[in-house]
From TrEMBL:
InterPro entries: Thio2_N (IPR049299), Thioredoxin (IPR005746), Thioredoxin-like_sf (IPR036249), Thioredoxin_CS (IPR017937), Thioredoxin_domain (IPR013766). The keyword DNA damage does not apply. GO terms for biological process: cell redox homeostasis. Transmembrane segments: none annotated. It comes from the Bacteria. Belongs to the thioredoxin family. It holds the Pfam family Zn_ribbon_Thio2. PANTHER family: GEO12009P1. This is Thioredoxin. GO terms for molecular function: metal ion binding; protein-disulfide reductase activity.
Length: 152
């Protein structure tokens, strides 16, 4: 067996978007439509996952793939404008990213904890830590480009 320092991990922890169970998925099988070992639903849906405060930390802390977060609010015009573009980006970014949405009206504790001052705001989390942030609405291609650029 040959080992390299930049080798991909053999398996990744993926948090189920339905039941929040942590699943171990072989890295080579991420694109093979894996299902949750607990609830048997798809681990990747191609759509943003709406997360409450109670679910948010588990997803950012236990997921081995980067988590892209849209902090938004239902009354925000630019947020509503960006929503379909964010959904399009989710279809293309999964399974390399977990794509989620956090309603800052429902999760005011998260908005305060992460000092969200304007919405929409995109934030990228890796290993439970925020690594990049971008305020303002974007189209799908800019969302994907921003996520890829900040995932290096």
């Amino acid at each position: 067996m040959t080992s390299t320092t930049n080798a991909q991990p053999e398996s990744l922890h993926i948090v189920c978007p339905h039941c929040d169970a942590v699943n171990r998925v072989p890295a080579a099988r991420l694109a093979a439509e894996p299902v949750c070992g607990k609830c048997q639903k798809a681990l990747f849906t191609g759509a943003p996952v709406d997360l409450s405060s109670a679910r948010f930390l588990k997803h950012i802390e236990r997921s081995d793939i980067p988590v892209l977060v849209d902090f938004w609010a239902p009354w925000c015009g630019p947020c509503r404008t960006m929503a379909p573009f964010y959904a399009q980006a989710a279809q293309r970014l999964e399974p390399q990213f977990r794509v989620v949405k956090v309603d800052t009206e429902q999760a005011q504790d998260l908005a305060a904890r992460y000092a969200i001052r304007s919405i929409p705001t995109l934030a990228l989390f890796k290993g439970g830590r925020e690594v990049a942030r971008q305020p303002g609405a974007m189209d799908a291609s800019n969302i994907m480009a921003w996520a890829a650029q900040n995932n290096r």
